């Protein structure tokens, strides 16, 4: 496998960066052009009808309806959903999703692409911390607004504490919030380190964290990189690739809950271990504490102690 992403540029040295690029994408079976446009029309119909149906549905039934919509959208993307629950009954996890209604939980997962939002919502309705420009994307932007996405502008480091504060407020109110602690997308066969900053919200609110193993498989059960949003991908390029795909499986594995403890860095390490297990990144990124910042040695501003690394960096997309 050749990874051919170009060198990245950074607004500041904290920004996580992924070496994944177009060379990571391996094609799979595809549907025809007519079928692709039929899928697109179906998704547009779901997005347009979602607000109306949500308002018309009693609050006690809205989560079920919203989950059905997300699963229908996933089906329109040509994906089947597979959920594996490794939690024990003593942990109090919901039999129908991440947590019972009104029970706060922070969900953490590796980040592959925009399809992650649909896949996780198909398990149970959730809110997300997501890239700020997502609300401007066609179709998916409307869903982002309806699901109360917390936008994060990665180029503006000073906004990070405010975003962490918003996550803490949502958790205190009993919400389910998804965060992608890698801070950028990877191809699904490689992955980055989980940054500790967002975990502070769980520590501050003593909220349990739900580690999730998220991956996409082809019809043969092998890892599939088609949904990856990496390198120089535009949303249109990525959407077309996904809509043309055939036989994909979106797999969600719910690992045992992690208690927040008092140290966000320890919590980040525990969650990364839960999500990755013994897997190793195809790009060889094994360090869970350091930031990547070109060939310079820099301090991660989200950490209280001086922790530095020297490592080459390539293109990023989030």
TrEMBL record:
GO terms for biological process: phosphatidic acid biosynthetic process. Coiled coil: none annotated. Keywords: Acyltransferase, Lipid biosynthesis, Lipid metabolism, Membrane, Transferase, Transmembrane, Transmembrane helix. Residues 105-217 form the Phospholipid/glycerol acyltransferase domain. The chain crosses the membrane at residues 36-58. This is Lyso-ornithine lipid acyltransferase. Pfam families: Acyltransferase. The lineage of its organism: Bacteria, Bacillati, Actinomycetota, Actinomycetes, Mycobacteriales. The keyword Acyltransferase applies. Pathway: Lipid metabolism. It comes from Nocardia alba. The keyword Membrane applies. It comes from the Bacteria.
């Amino acid at each position: 496998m050749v990874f051919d992403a170009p060198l990245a540029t950074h607004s500041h040295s904290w920004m996580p960066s992924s070496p994944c690029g177009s060379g990571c994408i391996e094609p799979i079976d595809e549907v025809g052009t007519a079928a692709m446009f039929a899928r697109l029309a179906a998704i547009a119909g779901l997005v347009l009808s979602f607000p109306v149906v949500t308002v018309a549905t009693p609050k006690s039934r809205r989560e079920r309806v919203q989950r059905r919509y997300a699963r229908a959208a996933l089906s329109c993307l040509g994906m089947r959903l597979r959920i594996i629950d490794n939690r024990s009954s003593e942990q109090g996890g919901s039999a129908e999703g991440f947590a019972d209604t009104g029970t706060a939980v922070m969900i953490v997962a590796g980040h592959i692409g925009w399809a992650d939002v649909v896949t996780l919502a198909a398990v149970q309705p959730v809110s997300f911390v997501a890239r700020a420009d997502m609300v401007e994307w066609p179709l998916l932007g409307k869903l982002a607004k309806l699901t109360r996405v917390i936008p994060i502008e990665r180029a503006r480091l000073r906004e990070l504490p405010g975003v962490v504060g918003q996550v803490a407020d949502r958790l205190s109110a009993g919400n389910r919030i998804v965060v992608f602690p890698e801070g950028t997308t990877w191809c699904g066969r490689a992955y980055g380190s989980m940054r500790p900053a967002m975990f502070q919200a769980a520590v501050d609110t003593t909220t349990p964290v739900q580690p999730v193993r998220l991956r996409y498989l082809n019809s043969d059960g092998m890892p599939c990189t088609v949904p990856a949003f990496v390198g120089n991908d535009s949303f249109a390029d990525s959407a077309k690739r996904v809509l043309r795909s055939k036989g994909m499986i979106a797999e969600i594995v719910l690992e045992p809950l992690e208690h927040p403890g008092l140290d966000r860095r320890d919590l980040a390490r525990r969650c990364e271990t839960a999500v990755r297990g013994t897997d190793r990144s195809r790009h060889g990124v094994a360090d869970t504490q350091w930031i990547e910042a070109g060939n310079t040695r820099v301090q991660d501003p989200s950490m209280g102690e001086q922790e530095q690394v020297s490592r080459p960096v390539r293109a990023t997309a989030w």
